[in-house]
Specification:
The protein has 91 residues and is mainly beta. 14% of the residues lie in helices and 44% in strands. It has one domain: Copper binding periplasmic protein CusF (OB fold (Dihydrolipoamide Acetyltransferase, E2P)). The chain has two helices and seven strands, in the order H-E-E-E-E-E-E-E-H.
Amino acid sequence: MTQSITDWLQQNRLIVVSVDPVAGRVRLKSEGAICTDLHCGEETVITTEDGAADLKAINAGDIVKVEGSGGRAKRIVVVRRVWDELTSPEF
């Protein structure tokens, strides 16, 4: 059975729960409400709507996509900002 694009997006988008830029750690929540801690080093690339950034540019509530393995993030892409979510006409 082929996975729909909606299902794929829901499974690959994560919600930021907290960010600790000093420790280089991001806690994320998946669709199933399971939290995961990712460790980010200097090699981790953060991409926002403004281009490349650092961990300070990520906020709790942002929706992100992560590339990496073994609990280490190689790339974090901010898909939707928390303030965009809160101002959505869906509310």
